Amino acid sequence: MISISDYFGKYGKSHKDVTPPRYAAAQILLLKVNKLMQIAIDDGVEFPINPKTKSQVAGETNGGFRPQDCTIGAPLSAHKICQAVDLYDPKGEIDDWLTSSPVAREAIKELDMYFEDKSATVGWSHWSTKAPKSGRRFFLP
Known about the structure:
The protein has 141 residues and is an alpha+beta fold. It is 33% helix and 12% strand. Helix 3 crosses helix 4.
């Protein structure tokens, strides 16, 4: 499971861009992410630990929270408003489960979550509580 500390990573929850609304959004995000992760685990999916972050968060430092001055992502990207996290998925097994499992499809709808298309996330899986403009559960960034 992903902790609030894992999510904020090197920035810590005391970073100037971690406002009370963003912190609350991160808590909601992680509640849903961890619930979906548990459903996936119960369905046989494994969530490997990223050797760079020592958690399931992908990347080196920006797979969870991204401050406003981070050059990765637009100013209102879901990561910068604490509504997205990238999960370490080196073999694409998490994305495969999300797109092919009836259990996943039901849980995704119930939890009201959104994901970048696996063709755009080789090595990680993008999970979000922010609906894209298309409104599709799986979208191209």
